[in-house]
Amino acid sequence: MELLQALQDRRSIRKYKDTPVGREAVEHLLEAARLAPSWKNQQCWRFLVVTDAAKREKILAGFGDDNPGKKGIAAAPVTIVVCADPAESGIENGIHYYVADTAMALEHLCLAATEMGLGTCWMGLFNEDLIRKGLGIPPTFRIVGITPLGYPDQDPKPRPRKQLNEIAYFEKWGEN
Ligand SMILES: Cc1cc2nc3c(=O)[nH]c(=O)nc-3n(C[C@H](O)[C@H](O)[C@H](O)COP(=O)(O)O)c2cc1C
Known about the structure:
The chain has helices at residues 3-9, 23-34, 53-60, 70-75, 97-115, 128-135, 164-167; strands spanning 45-50, 78-84, 91-92, 95-96, 119-120, 142-150. It is α+β, with helices and mostly antiparallel strands. It has a single domain, classed as 3-Layer(aba) Sandwich (NADH Oxidase). A hairpin with a 2-residue loop joins strand 3 and strand 4 (95-96). Helix 2 (23-34) crosses helix 5 and helix 3 packs antiparallel against helix 6 (128-135). The structure holds flavin mononucleotide.
């Protein structure tokens, strides 16, 4: 699959089949994440892959029932908790780059998953402390994102995006 096709096909998937995802497939996705760029190439990210049902419950405890993606985590065979050590990244102009580093790695993973016919959903609305403690993640690590991973049981339409002329300017701010 061409990269552009994966960019066009990727959706946030919130319904999953219970078909298992093998370790080899997961490692392929982690390899895609590993290749992401990062602050001074310090690669502050860590990935915790969870398939154990009891551990999944610890993750679910950190999500509100009003989070539309929660059911996806409950159904998907795999959950990936994407963490970062801020000390392995930098701050410039007040921007904490561990978030950018980790987001890029997670998006690499999501796009590679699309290519393999797998679904993901970048999730950021959760109780970080509860999940960190529940999974035994060291306190020095931040949880930047969590995604379910599995075979989609839905085919959502593309969500709308702003038009290019609303978000991109040429030569002068505000001009297309
Ligand atoms: C940083 C971030 C946090 C998100 N958090 C959640 C979340 O907690 N729950 C959820 O269901 N979706 C979450 N999403 C998914 C977005 O709602 C989704 O990407 C957006 O609506 C566009 O839809 P699409 O991904 O299918 O193109 C998050 C996405 C991002 C990038």
